[in-house]
From TrEMBL, chain A:
The pyruvate dehydrogenase complex catalyzes the overall conversion of pyruvate to acetyl-CoA and CO(2). It contains multiple copies of three enzymatic components: pyruvate dehydrogenase (E1), dihydrolipoamide acetyltransferase (E2) and lipoamide dehydrogenase (E3). Tetramer of 2 alpha and 2 beta subunits. One of its GO terms (biological process) is pyruvate decarboxylation to acetyl-CoA. It comes from Symbiochloris irregularis. This is pyruvate dehydrogenase (acetyl-transferring). Its cofactor is thiamine diphosphate. It catalyses: N(6)-[(R)-lipoyl]-L-lysyl-[protein] + pyruvate + H(+) = N(6)-[(R)-S(8)-acetyldihydrolipoyl]-L-lysyl-[protein] + CO2. Residues 2-283 form the Dehydrogenase E1 component domain.
Automatic annotation (TrEMBL), chain B:
This is pyruvate dehydrogenase (acetyl-transferring). Its EC number is 1.2.4.1. One of its GO terms (molecular function) is pyruvate dehydrogenase (acetyl-transferring) activity. Keywords: Oxidoreductase, Thiamine pyrophosphate. It catalyses: N(6)-[(R)-lipoyl]-L-lysyl-[protein] + pyruvate + H(+) = N(6)-[(R)-S(8)-acetyldihydrolipoyl]-L-lysyl-[protein] + CO2.
Length: 318, 371
């Protein structure tokens, strides 16, 4: 809706349907473990401690956003919770994930790096490079393939010779998990995390699904049928699954859950309003954070005749 | 052509015919039972690869977060000996021998840097780093910005580039012209033994991603280093003061220019020679001060004419210092061709001292100089 109002623009990759993966993952790990993934990062960011308001403010390009409006939807980060994003180019972050694991091993801190990528990314050569290096040096990395079966408009069988992504590590072990069941995700991640610490890298394939298209410009129905989407939603929706478990095992009544939902929806609405109130970043922010210590990177005037060099006093005519 | 001691800079002048790239002297060095290593640690004149090695060794000793990764940097000793035997002192994890996957291990180095480690990633030849371009541009260059300052990437990407001795087109590339547009990286080119060590030490200490350009033909240049000296990464070096024309150069072209200067002095021309050192950002203060004095500029670079460092520098000088110029900025660059293998053709591809002499003569006599 924010997108339709042209308040959020650019690329927007929604992860509804895939919620069980970050929730289950966080339940089986801590913020001391590193996590890195690609651009479908709104849910994961919230799982890593970025507030909903910060996510919305970032989408609106405001200064209260997770990255002060500089990154946008695809670049949400939270350094103090070891959330490394949020990356734009498919697959490029997987060697980075191996680097995070290298740092864990270097510092001997007993933590792992969760490196998430999708079925579309799984065919990137740099992932094989990262797997080779991680296995060679026993880096504590868990490669999590969030397989939602479509790389934008291309189904997994039209893109991958082998769509059994958990076997694609060849010489490292792999685990297939029902990614729509949050408890299965939690147990799978707990096992994989332990394995990574004791024996080295492992691939965990999460069988999941996204209801929306690849991004906001993709209706998501040209390469799959609406019946398929509705079918998955009816049978395997992760949130409905939790609701069913809670009510069946009498841990909560359905009216309690409805109240909780209403409260959360109101909270999100409030966060959106607060995000809309947030200011736009000042123009000086264009030049902050290019270099670590400033280096005087300045706004170079588009009109080049106004580009005169001011020498420091006394330096002319040596 | 004999090698002579340069009267100006005191260093062994670059001997065209006899200088060989470091690997050919490997057998000679290792046959000496590490006497070379002991000699490198002492003071006195040393080779550039020894000076670079000292820089790496000193910084790794001081700071346990500094580590090296690259192909053959460990047990093999480094293809240009810059990390020779360091693995014996620091172990295999800190001197990491990577497989041949530039995209992969550059990304790994950047990921490690994001957590606060300070990796030095070596490209065996800068040309190979084209495979890692995405990592260097998007992840090293831009992450500090797109994360709103949350992550820094204190990485040093170093390796030899430039035209060597008939190494062929793909091993003779000048990556500085490709990397110069990336926002967020700094480009530094060393040229002497002294500045090689001092700049590499500063690059390792810097919190910005630094791309550190060495040259294939300079590893055996001899000179002195200053102890415990860190050189400013953004400042150009005034190699020779003069008043007739400003000659801007960097890396190996410094020696080409100094050779030309010997001839120019005989003709009564007094050039000011500035070694750029910082290819991104340019030290416009030093450059401007010189241009305001001489009012004539020649840029001597090894990059190709199209899109080289000289192209950006020329544009900046023209825009910022137009009223201080008596002559258009003259740019001497390599030909826009893949570097040929044959000796004469390779020599014709790059700038030679005779061309610098001719350009300086013409610009001082206020004629058009073709470049």
């Amino acid at each position: 809706m924010l997108y339709k109002q042209k308040l959020a623009r650019g690329f927007l990759h929604l992860a509804d349907g895939q919620e069980a993966v970050p929730v289950g993952l966080e339940a089986a790990s801590s913020y001391k473990d590193s996590l890195i993934q690609t651009y479908r990062d709104h849910c994961t960011a919230v799982g890593r401690g970025v507030t909903v308001k910060e996510v919305f403010a970032e989408l609106l390009g405001r200064v209260d956003g997770a990255v002060r409006g500089l990154g946008g939807s695809m670049h949400l980060y939270k350094a103090e919770n070891n959330f490394y994003g949020g990356m734009g180019i498919v697959g490029t972050h997987v060697p980075l994930g191996a680097g995070l694991a290298f740092a864990h091993k270097y510092r001997k801190d007993g933590c792992v790096s969760f490196t998430l990528y999708g079925d579309g990314a799984a065919n990137q050569g740099q992932i094989s490079e990262a797997i080779n290096m991680s296995a060679l040096w026993n880096l504590p990395v868990v490669f999590v393939v969030e397989n939602n079966h479509f790389g934008m408009g291309t189904s997994q069988d039209r893109a991958s010779k082998s769509a059994r992504f958990y076997t694609r590590g060849d010489y490292i072990p792999g685990l297939w998990v029902d990614g729509m069941d949050v408890l299965a995700v939690k147990n799978g991640i707990a096992f994989a995390r332990q394995h990574a610490l004791e024996h080295g890298p492992i691939i965990v394939e999460m069988d999941t699904y996204r209801y929306h298209g690849h991004s906001i410009s993709d209706p998501g129905s040209s390469y799959r049928t609406r019946d398929e989407i509705q079918g998955v939603r009816r049978a395997r929706d992760p949130i409905e699954h939790v609701r069913t478990l809670l009510t069946e095992f009498k841990m909560a009544s359905s009216s309690e859950l409805k109240q909780l939902e209403r409260k959360l929806k109101k909270g999100v609405q409030d966060d959106i309003e607060a995000a809309k109130q947030s200011a736009e970043p000042p123009i000086e922010d264009l030049w902050n954070n290019i270099y670590r210590d400033g280096l005087g990177a300045q706004f170079r005037n588009i009109d080049s005749t106004r580009n005169k060099i001011q020498l420091p006093q006394g330096s002319a005519g040596r | 052509m004999q090698g002579r001691s340069c009267g100006l800079c005191g260093q062994t002048r670059f001997a065209e015919a006899r200088l060989v790239a470091a690997p050919k002297t490997r057998r000679h060095v290792s046959g000496r039972n590490s006497r070379c290593i002991t000699r490198a640690a002492a003071s006195g004149p040393k080779l550039m690869w020894e000076a670079l090695r000292e820089a790496v060794d000193e910084e790794m000793e001081k700071d346990p977060t500094v580590c090296v990764m690259g192909e053959d940097v460990g047990h093999y000793g480094g293809s240009y000996k810059v990390t020779y035997d360091l693995y014996k002192k620091y172990g295999d994890l800190r001197l990491l021998d990577t497989p041949i996957c530039e995209n992969g291990f550059m990304g790994m180095g950047i990921g490690a840097a994001m957590t606060g480690l300070r990796p030095i990633v070596e490209g065996m030849n800068m040309g190979f780093l084209l495979l890692a371009y995405n990592q260097i541009s998007n992840n090293a260059g831009m992450l500090h910005y797109t994360s709103g300052g949350q992550f820094k990437v204190p990485i040093v990407v170093r390796g030899p580039g430039g035209v060597g001795r008939q190494l062929g087109a793909e091993h003779s590339q000048r990556l500085e012209s490709y990397f110069q547009s990336i926002p967020g990286v700094q480009l530094v080119a060393c040229s002497t033994v002294a500045n090689a060590k001092a700049l590499l030490k500063s690059a390792i200490r810097s919190d910005n991603p630094i791309i550190f350009f060495e040259h294939v033909l300079l590893y055996n240049v001899k000179g002195e280093t200053n102890d415990n000296y860190y050189q400013d990464l953004e400042r150009a070096e005034v190699v020779r003061q003069g008043k007739d024309v400003t000659i801007l150069c960097y890396s190996r072209m410094r020696y080409v220019v100094l050779q030309a200067v010997q001839e120019l002095e005989k003709q009564g021309i007094d050039p000011e020679v500035i070694d750029l050192i910082s290819l991104k950002p340019f030290d416009m203060h030093t450059i401007s001060a010189s241009v305001k004095k001489t009012r004539r500029v020649i840029i001597v670079e090894e990059c190709m004419k199209t899109g080289g460092i000289g192209a950006s520098l020329s544009a900046q000088i023209n825009e910022a210092l137009f009223d201080d110029l008596d002559h258009q900025v003259v740019r001497l660059s390599s030909q826009d061709v893949p570097t040929a293998y044959a000796y004469e053709l390779e020599a014709a591809t790059i700038v030679q001292p005779e061309q610098v002499v001719e350009a300086a003569q013409k610009i001082v006599q206020k004629q058009m100089a073709y470049a």
